[in-house]
Design goal:
By secondary structure, the protein is mainly β. The chain is built from two helices and 28 strands. 6% of the residues lie in helices and 38% in strands.
């Protein structure tokens, strides 16, 4: 563990100094997208969302995502605050899978399983800034080349993510990945922790949540899907109608950490409404749309006195995540939507965040 810590710190320091073994330097930076009083800050360390600032119903500006004050704190972060995770988000059972009869063994970083791409997933690498455009609808595009065998995954993979402010209090995340030479699983996810009352406002258990899904994928004690697809009706997982996060959370060990099978119809571009979150105190409302078949609803169960922005200490349930995705461990479940892409195919993942006030 100490050697890994030193390695990650060394990589970051080399990047900040512009040194990369004689190769063109990669700098770690912070970039702001801004439209009026709506601001989104990101960094090319892990293609991470650092902050999202917007007014509440009284005009007060707040940052509504959890995170840290300094980039260095993200280097060994185990919470995945704001990160773009991959090559395969969520868990892969026993850190292994097979494609066309070839077995691939991955790096284990969650007991016997692989979580969010392994020890050095996409959240722990420096992405290249391909383009940044300011103006009325500002955006930035990051690029990362994942090499054949990285964390055990097969084939070279080119990965792009674009963060864009599309309109007033609306921003999107567009992810794209292209395998170069081998079939490989791809499942990227955006792991921002939201607290619509403000990152330092305490628990999200009073947030109202609605998830447009009538089924979910049950998991075992290690949070690995069993392969079944079960109805939410009659379970604590039923958020088809708006209700607070706290309403039935005491029926679950720790809280929510589950994949929902989205059933709302898609539009002509394959995008569907995923969820609506509302904080009555601030009046902020978040509506999420995406083109993926599932969404992981996570209530910050593993947050334990995590020192964050402004010295605030985040505690259990101080943030929630809505990570649109393919189903967890899909590469080992033939009945789940496929997540293996071959050369010549393009993985596309689109998310749209719409904020409003009540």
């Amino acid at each position: 563990m100490a050697r890994r810590t030193l390695l990650f710190i060394s990589v970051l320091l080399l990047a900040l100094m512009g040194v990369s073994n004689g190769a063109p330097r990669k700098m770690v930076g912070i970039y702001e997208l801004k439209r009026g009083d709506f601001s989104v800050k990101v960094t090319n360390w892990g293609a991470t969302i650092l902050s999202v600032i917007l007014p509440d119903s009284k005009g007060k500006l707040n940052d509504v995502v959890l995170g840290y004050d300094k980039i260095g704190s993200y280097v060994n972060d185990t919470t995945y605050f704001g990160a773009l995770v991959g090559r395969v988000a969520n868990r892969i059972a026993d850190a292994r899978f097979s494609i066309n009869g070839t077995v691939y063994k991955l790096i284990r970083n969650d007991g016997n399983n692989t979580l969010h791409g392994g020890h050095r997933g996409f959240n722990r690498v420096i992405w290249t800034v391909k383009e940044k455009v300011d103006g009325e609808f500002p955006y930035i595009t990051f690029y990362y080349h994942s090499f054949d065998g990285e964390q055990g995954f097969p084939g070279d993979l080119d990965v792009f993510v674009t963060y864009k402010i599309d309109y007033d209090y609306v921003f999107s995340v567009s992810m794209r990945a292209v395998p170069r030479n081998k079939p490989t699983p791809v499942n990227l996810a955006q792991h921002t922790y939201w607290n619509l009352g403000g990152h330092d406002s305490g628990t999200i258990l009073k947030h109202s949540v609605q998830i447009f899904a009538s089924h979910f994928t049950p998991v075992d004690k290690n949070l690995i899907p069993t392969g079944k697809i079960a109805p939410v009706e009659g379970t604590p997982y039923d958020f088809r109608k708006p209700m607070t996060s706290a309403s039935r959370i005491d029926q679950l060990p720790g809280g929510y950490d589950i994949n929902y099978v989205l059933d709302s119809p898609t539009d002509v571009q394959g995008v569907r409404k995923v969820a609506i979150v509302e904080d009555c105190e601030s009046g902020r409302v978040l509506e999420l749309w995406a083109n993926q078949p599932g969404v992981q609803f996570y209530t910050g169960n593993f947050l334990k006195d995590e020192k964050g922005k402004g010295g605030h200490h985040y505690k259990q349930h101080d943030g929630l995540c809505l990570e649109t995705q393919d189903f967890p461990d899909a590469v080992n479940h033939p009945n789940f939507p496929r997540e293996v892409y071959s050369p010549g195919e393009v993985y596309k993942h689109y998310m749209l965040y719409k904020f409003a006030l009540k």
